[in-house]
What does this fold into?
Amino acid sequence: MLKLLEIVQPQKAFFGRKDAQQARLIRQMASDLHLDAEIVVCPIAREADGLALSSRNAYLQPDERRAATVLYRALAGARNSIARGERDPSRLTATMRETLRAEPLAVPDNVELVDAETLEPVTRLRGACLALLAVKIGATRLIDNLLIEERDGAFATTL
It folds into this structure.
């Protein structure tokens, strides 16, 4: 990515929040190396049923495609729990895991809540956090996330 940014020298480079960890690392690299490009993180584009758009979706068989919406349902469950006042990351990850377990074709690889800046696991919600999912559906590994931001003592979530 560094070579590409140095060769092209864009004013802005756009990355999707679906790949939040990658976007965070590229933003840090651009800052550390004083690159002129502004790194812009764009919202996640989703299908009508909530599945995050990804080139990997093309690898899913029809039954796997239907099953893949479990990622969105798991994140929506965490979002709903936060809206009801849940603040314990271990309970939020348990909620997501429970939703994923209900889908026989889903094999969770990673389910965690991390600090949005450091990407370190969190023990309590504060500032900006990410609920991260990596799940295999058939042979395809899909990722998705929920952004959780503290604003004036309340929490807002963005799928």
Q: What stands out?
A: The CA atoms of residues 132 and 145 lie 5 Å apart. The first strand starts at residue 12 and ends at 16. Helices lie at 2-8, 20-32, 62-67, 70-83, 89-101. The mean pLDDT is 96.
